[in-house]
Amino acid sequence: MDYLMLLAAGRLAGEVLRRVRLGLGAALGGLYACAVFLPGMGFLEQPLCRIAAGVLMTLIAYGGSRHLLRCTLVFFGVSAALGGAIFAVTLLGGQGMTMRGGVFYSGMDLRILLLSAAICYVGLTLVLGRAAGHSLRELRTAEVRLRERKITLTALVDTGNTLTDPVTGRPVLVAEGEKVRALFPPDGGPEPEELRDPAGALARLSAGEEGKRWRLLPYRAVGVSCGLLLALRTDGVRVGETDYGAILVALSPTPVSDGGGYSALIGA
């Protein structure tokens, strides 16, 4: 339950999702729920302790984010909404509820409660997420192959990223140029300064062994009405469990994240 609430809060707040940190935050919530029943720990039932536990959970899950306050407030809102929904389902099922140690108990079958929680979670994220207008943003491990060479990157999967190959319509992985240099033999790839002049870099690289793999990719971004990125046709890209095949990798001359939490991004 705690994991679902943290996950829903991140999605509704438009925050990058880190599954391990979400799991750690949920684990803290579970430990807190157990600690309430230990001898001499009754003070944990106090409202301030409950609030502190919730804040610590969001700190673990989303600490360091610029949207930490938003995530925290949304988390408490989701907790109230999900708790109210499950309470209503329990009453509609004709089951009473009791309280012990500040925790509500229901005689309803656990499977029904879990199913109700899952349905409520899906409803909250779909309805409220659409109203908030946030895209889903999640970190995944990306593997890029070029002949016998392979590199691993941390990639942001962002449903708001619509950059695609204009020829095939397939998604494009945008990666920091410095992070993909290991794909190329010495003098076989673009220099960092060349990425700021993609047309000039293409002219030089087109004459090399991998000349047919290189191309220019047009893009638009905030403050850029029509820009160009140097792009490479790879032999394979896998992001998380998704195998994208031989898609383009566009090389960015600048970091793609503000805090360095990821070095590549791709649309979902």
UniProtKB/TrEMBL annotation:
This protein's record includes keyword Transferase: no
The keyword Transmembrane helix is assigned to this record: yes
Keywords, sorted A to Z: Membrane, Transmembrane, Transmembrane helix
InterPro entries associated with the record: SpoIIGA
Transmembrane segments: 20-41, 47-64, 71-92, 112-132
GO biological process: asexual sporulation; proteolysis
Molecular function GO labels: aspartic-type endopeptidase activity
Domain of life of the native organism: Bacteria
Span of the signal peptide: none
Record-given protein name: Sigma-E processing peptidase SpoIIGA
